[in-house]
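Consider the following assembly input.
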Amino acid sequence: MSTASTIVKLPPQEGATLPKKSYLNSEYGLKSWLLTGDHKRIAILYLISITFMFFVGGAMAGLIRLELLTPQSDLMATDTYNKVFSMHGIVMVFLFLVPSVPATIGNFLIPIMIGAKDLAFPKINLLSWYLYLAGAAFTIAAMVLGGVDTGWTFTTPLSTHYLNTHVVTAGLGIFIAGFSSIFTGLNFIVTIHRMRAPGMTWFRLPLFIWSHYAASILMVLGTPVLAISLVLVILERTIGIGIFDPTKGGDPLLFQHLFWFYSHPAVYIMILPGMGVISEVISTFSRKRVFGYTAVAFSSVAIAVFGFFVWEHHMFIMGVSNYSALVFSLLTMLVAVPTAIKIFNWSATLYKGSITFETPMLYAFGFLGLVTIGGMTGVFLGSMGMDIHLTETYFIVAHFHFVMVGGMLMAYLSGIHFWWPKMTGRMYPEQVSKLAALTTFIGFILTFFPQFILGYLGMPRRYAAYPPEFQVLNVLSTAGATVLGIGYLLPMLYMTWSLKYGKIAGANPWQATGLEWQIQSPPLTENFLETPIVDHEAYDYEWLANKTQHEVQTVG
Amino acid sequence: MHIISPVLWEFLVNWLTHFALFPPEASGIAPYTDALYFFLVGISLTGLVIVGLLVGLFSVKYRKEKHPEAVQIEGSTLLEATWTIIPLALFMIAFVWGALLYFRIYTPPTNAMNIYVVGKQWMWKAEHPGGQHEINALHIPINKPVQLTLISQDVFHSFSIPAFRVKREAIPGRYTTVWFEATKTGEYHLFCTQYCGTLHSAMIGTIYAMTPDDYQAWTAGSTSGTSLAQNGERLFASLGCNSCHSGAATARGPNLAAAYGSKIQMSNGSYVTVDDAFLRNAILNPTMNQVAGYAPIMPTYQGQVSEDGLIDLVEYIKNLNSNYRVQQTLNTSQVQTPSPAMPGTSGSANAGQGMVKQ
Ligand SMILES: [Cu+2]
Ligand SMILES: [Cu+2]
């Protein structure tokens, strides 16, 4: 246990100036963006596109909550409702949550954090974005042409034989977007293996890198299974091969196995990068190295490995053998442990720190609380007998929104606020952003907490109409969603505002230790003028304090 | 009292009286499920409070104004081991407890009465052995174990009774079972919880839990005239099953009497126990379920018999315990104009009926 102590002073922001040359102004024109190989520009392209998709998915969520204001199905036809929640799920899962942190923040930071000039395959990186766009285009086409009402889970044989909506179009969209994610994962893995700066050993990597590494493995190994199951759905739908159809000797449960073999790990594809963000943010704002670095790093890997062997917990009530359910329940309990370790390690990081409460930190605190609830309710669902009552109800809806929205989205917003100064060179207004963080938190609790109670009461998910005794809780939930909506709109507005009017941030506004903070903001296209040589561990605040106080090299 | 507006007041009262926070506990298993639930809520709250306290206390004590110098700490194996082992232990309790509950809910007792339930877009059809059919409703006696054998005719559905804390997926092409013992009379929600298309949220119904006497009266009052087994018997004849399964020593197909529950040898040498699922598969997929010692001549009935019909056939074969009387039955008037079956009364099954289990 080292007990060196560090005082870190924030640099004065008044003196900061925007660098004359940066990745943002190295080239001009639409073409310079659309054909760029620069990971930072591609990250910005992703940022714009996933923000757009987020608001599409968000609008769907708004419609769902409006319909559920009253017990009757009165705002829209039930078919329309089914299309709306399907689109909400498809857009949010495949086009927002999966790419959210990795494709934007990860893309921007992974090369910089390890001291590289770019990702290993810049052109493949650009291709990933175009694939994402194509996937999104197909999905939106499916929506505009009349919608798809399979739910995001594409359950067979409903999706293969009983619906005449645009299942194939939407399926193709997700199939294509899947390749975007496979290529991103591949790019990250190769980059992290091959492009680390001299001295950047595995155990000097920021935890952000570890968690992205783990998530990338899941993307590369899991997504092809999703792709193939969608291809099988499309083939069964179009030419009638009998893979899932029991009357042709197929097995409808097979689809469940295939789908969840991807979609459970997908939960970790979504949450692991967010956990990486939280490690960076909590360390920075408590000016302390992350408590138990190795445990946090390995818990990411453990989550990735165990994450592949728990999928059947989505099928406990579907007539699987009781004994196989037993094995999967046990493994589900095991996968909960690394998450618990992380949460305690983050809390312990605060101990004897020197804590400040900037906006990213507030989001990170929100993350800690909500992920604890989300994770614990996962244990409810992993406990087989309990799952019988809770599965397919609003309990499960609340559970995964706590993990995905309370966890991942909070982490994403935390990360965006944390690295915004690095990405744009400017600060956002501090007070408003704190207000937004608080609004999001309150809105979130109000929206999703009542859903746990609804779930225990037995309210099924994906219902357009429900018994009147569930109304009070549904009204609360809708009210909360309104607050939550405001909480998400605010950053959108002030972030855009800050692009022009925000205070100039300077290279290292938070006095963080990562390599990305040692270069100018916004960075140069080539990131580093000369390849950095790393001689210290991650989160070494002493090193930072002792570093001769020369303001970072500004070119030109 | 109503200072604001009588209308608003009425609305509020209406609203709040229709307000539920906890589902009724109306089955034998419900208190067990709830106990596990409260245990899990307990450990969740404890975890949440611990994390909250740590974060809160440290934030106050070590905020920059009070604690300007951060003390760098590498970690602590002891502490980390603690917060690995304690959660692990608690999760293991949740695992074992949940597993016990699960096995209990999905292992029907042998003396349970069986009701078939067929799910189809968008309704539930329950078929009682006595031949009573009901749509989106299920009448059951309290204090008696009831087993449901579920199947879907089209897509996945899921049969959920929150008040009983039981739920089971109705899967196309496969029987699943669940059981419960209602403990309180009353009417309870029945939901389809698996998304199944347009009217998923209308695929709901009511469970009527009744005293045994009321139930008896209900079964007597709503009989359709023929029991499931009798329907099956007719189908058995009209589909020509009896031409091969005549029970005669020279018959081309095996004698199905007493088949149910027995262990038979398959042509590939393995042994299987004849249960509902096996019977259903044997009818639809004879080539996949070859019985040893017979030629593979049985045609497939895939697509020719509805799920209801299959249930009738299964129920018929199930009840053929000893007497093989297809041929006689068809010649008696009993089947053409069946006497009202009395599922509630035992021992009155007259000759000519497929021995309805009471
Ligand atoms: Cu899962
Ligand atoms: Cu349904």
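The CA atoms of residues 260 and 489 of chain A lie 33 Å apart. Ask yourself how this observation constrains the way the partners meet.
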